[in-house]
Known about the structure:
Shape: globular
Largest sheet: 8 strands, mixed
Number of strands: 14
CATH class of the largest domain: Alpha Beta
Strand order of the largest sheet: 5-2-1-6-7-8-10-11
Number of helices: 22
Distance between the termini: 57 Å
Helix content: 40-55%
Structural class: alpha/beta
CATH superfamily of the largest domain: NAD(P)-binding Rossmann-like Domain
Strand content: 15-25%
Amino acid sequence: MAKLNYDVLKKSGYDGYVLDKGAAPVKVLQFGEGNFLRAFVDYWFDMSNEKADFNGKVALVQPIAQGLTPYINAQEGLYTLYLRGSENGEKVDRKRVITCVDACYNPYEAADWEAIKEIAKSDDLEYIASNTTEAGIVYDADSTAEQLPPNSFPAKLTVLLNERFKAGKAGVVILSCELIDANGKELEKCVLKHIDDWKLGEDFKAWVEKEVTFCSTLVDRIVPGRIRDAEENAQLDAANGYEDDLKVVGEVFGVWYIEGPEWLAEKLPFKKAGLNVHVVPEVAPYKKRKVRILNGAHTGFVLGAYLAGQDIVRDCMYNETIHGFMDKMLNEEVIPILPLDKADCEAFAAAVTDRFKNPFVDHQLMSISLNSTAKWKARDLPSLLEYNEKFGKLPQALTMGFAAYIAFYSNDLQRREEDGLVAKRPAGNEYKIQDDAWALDFYWNHKDDDAKTLVHAVLTNEQMWDEDLTKVAGLEETIVKDLELIRSEGAEAAYKSVL
């Protein structure tokens, strides 16, 4: 079977949108060629070519010495994207061949690094996108402009921006997708420090500060990645009529929030294309919404759901009690205290249910349970405390979720192992709790406590919560009651008691 390229794609009978090879200039330079960027950023630009006549290609830069450059170029930048999941309760499995990628470059090859510099100086270039992992946006004092290429991503970017400045070209918009807070602002800080340390001049620094728009962004799409099952790969290739080494799978849901000035919404092609990409004054509230609703829902219900006999997220969505418990927690306790439009938050929460029902992803509750102490502190405890402060009463579902966290960490403890704490589920099987060693040691040391003693020890542990939670009126008594109910009647019955 022939390898995917433009000629093979045409002969395969593919009837979707195609932007032909060489039919548009490179308008986007992208640092990163991995699964996420190809299923997310490149998808949005590909859709913009079809829906908004963006007419732009994307040049990919391999961020580390080993990468996908030869594979991408062998397929002339083409690859098949499968978006799979659930929308409005219906199973969705969409296929699209992404045709916006022009080529991939390996900056650790001298000729490719020079080619990347030429792209950086192009009149056509408008955007630089990146996802170089959380470790990518760091200031590296050992990086120099003379290295081929400079070690770090910010150092590489500084060199390329300097090339553009010296060529007398306009500034660009930089879209950072790394999973750190204020990713764009942090990247800008690194670039400006390199300019100072390398003594590249005040004129260049002023140009960067005035003409280059560094955008912090929030990305949201689960990308399981490449299809690794050989049989499924072969079946898809046979159905497509070509061999594709770069297939990638993402969930059908996707949203991109870009922090930037008002003019950026009109400049970017996404609004015109009607895509779920939004330019906002600041990303922080949307990150808070994601953490409190999507991540908070996971942490808030899965521990009790596991004790109740569930194993994967999707099955929980078809359990009336557990699903009802999650809905109460989100709609009645979390959304009312978020600083965003209520209808928008409710729509996001509805999308969360669809995402949790994804028929293509068996999301194990035990994988979500990892490091639940820190997760509860970051995702759910703030909602519990803010609700109590705003309404003068405890939120029933969140408080029960807190009790379920304690129950999960203390249920019939068997032994402390080097990499975890072994407990026993009510159904009889053992499970391993994995968290920071100090948290596991705490629960092991309190394994013989009754509910009242254990809850008091947990709530007064300031290493866990940065405060003494027994000072929250009624919280200790309520969690003791909830924990006793979970232990005597089971977690599902306890969840049902708050509905």
